[in-house]
Amino acid sequence: MWKRQQWAQVLFTDESRFCLEPADGRIRVWRRRGERFAEGAVLERQHFGGGSVMVWGGISTRLRTPLYHVVGNLTGVRYQNEILQPLVVPALQAIGPRAILQDDNAPPHRSAAVNTFIQQARVNRMLLPANSPDLNPIEHIWDELCRRVQRHHPPPANLGQLLQWLQ
C-alpha cells in the first residue's frame, strides 16, 4: 500500500538477455507473388540462434542507469565491482538518503561479498521472498527494447550491432 512518493525512492534493477535470432527460430518474410527468390526476400541465418547479449540496467521514477553489457558469467565479485560500485551506488545517492535497491534473488546478488559490500555501503535493499513473482517494472523496459529490435529492418547483423541498438 505504498504511495507514489515511497516508490520514487526505489531503484529497480535487473539483467536481461537479448538474442540475435527470435526464440522460435522462424523468420517471417512477406512477399508478393513471383518474388519467391528475389534478392530482397532471401535472408542468411545464423545457426544455433546466432548468440545473445546480456545487459543490466536500473530505473526509478527520476533516473535511469546506463545500460551495462555483461560479458560472460556474472559472479558476485563482478556484480559488486562492475555494477554496484560504479552504477548502483551513484544512482541511489542521486535518488536520495532513503533510496532503496530492488534486485532479485539471483545468486550473484546474494553472494557473501555482495552482502558485505551492501552493508558497508549502507545500501537499503528491498528484500524479496525466495521464488517470489517477478513484478519488477523494468521487465516492461526489456519487453519494449525487444520489440524495438524486432521491428528494425533489416535485423541486426551481429552481436555488436544488437548491443549498439539496445544502448
Provide structural commentary:
- This protein has 167 residues and is an alpha/beta fold.
- Helix content is 33%, strand content 16%.
- It is built from 5 helices and 5 strands.
- The chain has helices at residues 4-7, 76-95, 112-120, 138-151, 159-166, and strands at residues 10-19, 52-59, 68-70, 100-102, 124-125.
- Strands 3-2-1-4-5 form a 5-stranded mixed sheet, sandwiched between helices.
- Helix 2 runs parallel beside helix 3 (112-120).
- The protein is elongated, with a radius of gyration of 20 Å.
- The mean pLDDT is 88.
- Residues 9-153 form the Tc1-like transposase DDE domain.
- It holds the Pfam family DDE_3.
- This is Tc1-like transposase DDE domain-containing protein.
- One of its GO terms (molecular function) is nucleic acid binding.
- InterPro entries: RNaseH_sf, Tc1-like_DDE_dom, Transposase_5.
